[in-house]
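User: Hi! I'm working on a homework problem where we have to compare a predicted structure to a textbook description. Could you give me the structure for the chain below?
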Amino acid sequence: MKLCVALLVVGMLVTSGAYAAEGMYVPIELQKKLDFTKLKKLGLTLDAKGIERLVPAIIKVAHGGTGSFVSKTGLLVTNHHVAYGCIAALSSTRKHWGILKKGYYAEKITDEIPCPGYDLMVVAEISDVTSQVHSVVKPKMTITKKLKAMRIKAEQLAEECAKKTGLHCEVKPYSGGAMYYLNKYMKITDVRLVFAPPSDLGKFGGDVDNWRYPRHTADFTFLRAYVSRKGVGVPFELANVPYQPKVFLKISNNHNPLGKINLVLGFPGRTNRFESSYSAKFQAEYATPLKRDIYGKIFQYLKSSISSHKLSKAKYASMIAGLANAEKYYQDSAKSMIQHKLVANKIVQENAIRSRLKGKDTKEYASLLSEIDSIFTKTKKFYKRYLLLSVMTRILPSVRGSFYIARWNRIKDQKSVERS
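Assistant: Happy to help. Predicted structure tokens:
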């Protein structure tokens, strides 16, 4: 399973029946995909260019979370659970013991604490490179060779971009590879804790209400980004200065009434809304319940094993929070897939597509669905072993180290761009 991190996506939820634009979009494609005349009537005051101008204010925090710059001196707000790893790591040290429980407030800028292992990715530019990636596909290639050729081309483009610009560059597929975007980031590695609420507020109720709305919890933390005096992202140094973002968001006290348009910018990771009914069936009936059970058992075992050991509780606080988060997500997902009749609705969508096709296209579509069905039937035979290895690799350093050694032994003689 590939972890695909979507860059900056705009999600629009329109509750009015006048215009349904609900979905996820890359900022540079907004003008083509949305009717801003209709959205303006629903209360949206920004046009596509206005939304694009906000992009530098939204950052990726710690390899996947979302944060927003809220001042011209690099102050940013993110979720308490996104900053949890930083707070928990600091809380296990002698100097900052207990700040996870009691919270933290830096009265002066010199009181701000470096977050170990945290970094920020500030979007510099997003560009469409679909035609360049697809150009390597030849008519008689097998699907395996097509995917490999596109992956190598994407990595080459990212490598060329990094050498040319000095930025962190990634080429990522969207909509299952129908589109490819080159994302350029400025990487900031000096990130400091400014304010964190006590865990009784920041994690109020544990994960019971997670993945639900509304949530009655103070799930926020303030961090600050620092760079060198030349404005370059460098590791922590006392001489570093607060980063000055090109744009920052203003916090509003105005209430957004029910029924009004909502626009959200961030890093939601991925969407599976375009998957087939066979994928939906595999997830609803097998994969998601399996993930729920595995994460749940590991969470309960770890929680009960260290319940009376203070040092271990502090050391593993972030891991336990992550496991609880995952269990809750898959628990609710499993219920929702059944409640909202996911598989049946996907079959209806596929039948609607089939009814619009004619002749050769009808046969090709049926053959494609049959092939997808066969793939998921085969996947089910080894998926549990794969999932267990994947989970153990993430949470156990010894397993992760063994996996990396074994993998390196297999790929060490390959060129870097050919390594999958």
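For your comparison, note the following. The chain has 14 helices and 14 strands. The two ends are 12 Å apart (CA to CA). Good luck with the assignment!
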